[in-house]
Amino acid sequence: MLFLVLVVVPTLRAPALAAHAATAFKVIGERYRTMGWATLLVLVVTGVTNAALRAGSAAGLADSAWWATPFGRLLAAKLALVAIVLGLSAVHDFVVGPRAGRLMLEAPDRPGTARWRMAARWMGRINLLLALAIVALAVRLVRG
Questions:
Q1: Residues with Cβ < 8 Å from 7, sequence gap 6 or more?
Q2: What is the per-residue pLDDT for 132?
Q3: What is the pTM of this model?
Q4: How far apart are CA 34 and CA 11, in angstroms?
Q5: pLDDT of residue 32
Q6: Would you say 37 and 85 are in contact if contact means Cβ atoms under 8 Å apart?
Q7: Backbone torsions φ then ψ of 6, nearest 5 degrees
Q8: C-alpha–C-alpha distance, residues 104 and 26, integer Å
Q9: What is the pLDDT of residue 68?
Q10: What is the reported pLDDT for 58?
């Protein structure tokens, strides 16, 4: 996410690339989406595995007393953020982002295009902030 925000977007805003920015961003976004969802799948699988190990077993995750511990409450907060990121990512990656990209190529000057681009941009920024919060919670989980 940071690479996209700090490197790709500023690079595509360069005057020499302006004519091809919409096409490049569409191609990069589609590739990024594929890798991003694969990464999210790996993180969910390893996260569930780690939680089960921490709880003692997969059945231990069903014990409400375990979730009442400080670790369990912190993990629940992290999982809530993960669920929000997954939902927001799905809407961004499969609805808002593709529509904004298509409109940028078909009708860049149409007023609706700017609204869809702004929505995609803000969804990406919110997801980045939530991802950073998830990392902070993960660090607190392992460091205590």
A1: none
A2: 95
A3: 0.86
A4: 21
A5: 87
A6: no
A7: -90, -20
A8: 9
A9: 94
A10: 85
Helix (H, G, I), strand (E, B) or coil at 30: helix
Q: Are 137 and 78 in contact (CB under 8 A)?
A: yes
48: its two tokens: 């569930």
- In a 13 Å sphere around the CA of 119, the CA atoms on its Cβ side amount to 19
Quote the tokens at residue 128.
Answer: 């980045």
Assess whether pLDDT exceeds 80 at residue 144: no
Distance CA 54, CA 83 (A): 20
Kindly report the number of other CB atoms within 10 A of residue 123's CB atom: 19
Dihedral of CA 119/120/122/126: which sign?
A: positive
Exposure string over 89-119, b if 16+ CB within 10 A, otherwise e: beebbeebbbbbbebbeeeeeeeebeebbeb
CA distance 69 to 76: 10
CA distance 142 to 144: 6
Half-sphere exposure of 58 (CA within 13 A, CB side): 4
Residues 57-104 have pLDDT tens digits of: 888 889 999 999 999 999 999 999 999 999 999 999 999 999 998 998
